[in-house]
Amino acid sequence: MPWIQIKLNATAENAEAIGDMLMEETGAVSVTFLDAQDTPVFEPLPGETRLWGDTDVVGLYDAETDMNFVLEMLNNSPLIADDFAHKIEQLEDKDWEREWMDNFHPMRFGRRLWICPSWREVPEPDAVNVMLDPGLAFGTGTHPTTSLCLEWLDGQDLAGKTIIDFGCGSGILAIAALKLGAKKVIGIDIDPQAIQASRDNAERNGVADNLELYLPQDQPEGIQADVVVANILAGPLRELSPVIKSLVKDNGLLAISGVLESQAEDVATYYSDELSLDPIAAREEWCRISGRKA
């Protein structure tokens, strides 16, 4: 059956209400929320909405739907700004689950690290292979910020070291660090579902025994690590810079990402007082800032 979809730019504050309107007033058969990095938002717990940052709302309709009616409803809604951004697309009739699976391939980061979906053959059995399926949580290596962090980790000597993954999401960076030789990784995230996703993915990869996971209010006081990674967003990286810097041991390493090129120099100033920073690494308008604590 052919379909048509509309994608609207929204915010964390009004996305759920817009989604409800699309379902109840315009006849959408489904609504999907996408975060600012075009990553599916993890399914919320009953009664909860887990959206953060700028959010896209995607409504799916039967292809016979009069989209002019949908646009008229949106234009007349107090939830929608007068100049709201939107895009309408026709979708081919195909096996979308199969298509999605076929288009996700093993990816190599650095010299030895691979991220592989469970249904694909591992390209290099003797390499460092992390098995992670897309859609389980936030981050599978496809976004430039994640790939920048994975490549950075691959270039470090992590043998016997303690790592903190601040904002662990799917656990991809934490699991990669353990597979690359880290002795222990501490994952911290504000979302209980991210904690669960990290735990599940660590178990799938056989490294759960060396991974500690905490919500911020539950983490031990005074914890520090040899290496800290934080792939979040520019705002929290600024606001939480004292906390993030305090997690790094003296002479320890830090890598942060989730920063646009236009934000990188400013974000770097929040860390240059305590760290000797490397040249900023960029990819597809996104950046990684790294350095060593004095």
UniProtKB/TrEMBL annotation:
Top class in the EC scheme: transferase
Any single Pfam family the record assigns to this protein: PrmA
Compartment(s): Cytoplasm
Binding site for S-adenosyl-L-methionine: 146, 167, 189, 231
Keywords in alphabetical order: Cytoplasm, Methyltransferase, Ribonucleoprotein, Ribosomal protein, S-adenosyl-L-methionine, Transferase
Molecular-function GO term, any one: protein-lysine N-methyltransferase activity
Gene Ontology CC annotation, any one: ribosome
Organism domain of life: Bacteria
Location (main, coarse): cytoplasm
Keyword Transferase included in the entry's annotation: yes
Reactions performed catalytically: L-lysyl-[protein] + 3 S-adenosyl-L-methionine = N(6),N(6),N(6)-trimethyl-L-lysyl-[protein] + 3 S-adenosyl-L-homocysteine + 3 H(+)
GO biological process annotation, one example: methylation
Documented EC number(s): 2.1.1.-
InterPro entries tied to this protein: Ribosomal_L11_MeTrfase_PrmA, Ribosomal_PrmA_MeTrfase, SAM-dependent_MTases_sf
Function of the protein: Methylates ribosomal protein L11.
Family note: Belongs to the methyltransferase superfamily. PrmA family.
Protein name: Ribosomal protein L11 methyltransferase
